[in-house]
Amino acid sequence: MAHPSQLGLQDAASPVMEELLHFHDHALMIVLLISVLVLYIIVSMVSTKLTDKYILDSQEIEIVWTILPAVILIMIALPSLRILYLMDEINDPHLTIKAMGHQWYWSYEYTDYEDLGFDSYMVPTQDLTPGQFRLLETDHRMVIPMESPIRVLVSAEDVLHSWAVPALGVKMDAVPGRLNQTAFIASRPGVFYGQCSEICGANHSFMPIVVEAVPLEHFENWSSLMLEDA
């Protein structure tokens, strides 16, 4: 959960998000080193009155400043491609959930169960209880077992939406008539918040996503209660 004045990203709650955080720090350090080097060169060139013919006309320097950027780009590209392929990997999911975007709420269907599905609406501000977050809390959470591969099938019924949960490193567009899929593993128990990340109309800001990761035993108890109520 992000908090006011936070500068960094949210704490990772999935292996993919941990990889994304590491890549973010890696790329940021490269950018910082390049910025310091360029600033040093600019200051030194402006402040000194000395000139050197080996700097003004040097094939060695030209070779270095041609090869070095290529090496830096490779250092950024290879980890990036690795994470992109990791994000597309879906290996033997233990649970499949279909998330459908509507104007302006989400509906979830647990396809491994015969009749387990519900709509998830934002809790109005006047109905919030102490400890709940305004514009982020829903009346029904998407409950999942922790440490289990979860596949989410994402689509929309009306207009473009986007199912995104930053702490899990998940963001997938919901397109009418198209079924997209993504996968994640919640590495720890907790409640993770997200929002629709595609402008979808007047109430775009009022269709949050809440994922609750619980131990497998608690998930089985929850699913049994939901099936009984259905």
List the topology elements:
Layout: H1 15-47, H2 53-56, H3 59-88, E1 95-102, E2 105-110, E3 117-120, E4 142-145, E5 149-156, E6 161-165, E7 170-174, E8 180-185, E9 190-195, E10 208-214, H4 216-229
Helix pairs in contact: 1-3
Protein name: Cytochrome c oxidase subunit 2
Family: Belongs to the cytochrome c oxidase subunit 2 family.
Cofactor: Cu cation
Structure description:
With 230 residues, the protein is of the alpha+beta class. It folds into two domains: 13-86, Helix Hairpins (Orthogonal Bundle), CATH 1.10.287; 93-227, Sandwich (Immunoglobulin-like). Helices cover 35% and strands 26% of the residues. It is built from four helices and ten strands; from the N terminus they run αααββββββββββα. It has helices at residues 15-47, 53-56, 59-88, 216-229, and strands at 95-102, 105-110, 117-120, 142-145, 149-156, 161-165, 170-174, 180-185, 190-195, 208-214. A five-stranded mixed beta sheet has the order 3-2-1-5-8, with no helix packed on it. Strand 6 (161-165) and strand 7 (170-174) form a beta hairpin. It is elongated, with a radius of gyration of 24 Å.
Summarize it.
This protein is 35% helix and 26% strand. The protein has four helices and ten strands; from the N terminus they run αααββββββββββα.
Could you name the ranges where pLDDT drops below 50 across 5 or more consecutive residues?
none
The general outline is elongated
Q: Counting H and I runs of at least 4 residues, what is the number of helices?
A: 4
Note the beta-strand portion: 25-35%
CATH topology descriptor of the largest domain: Immunoglobulin-like
Q: How much helical structure, as a percent, in the residues?
A: 25-40%
CATH superfamily of the largest domain: Cupredoxins -  blue copper proteins
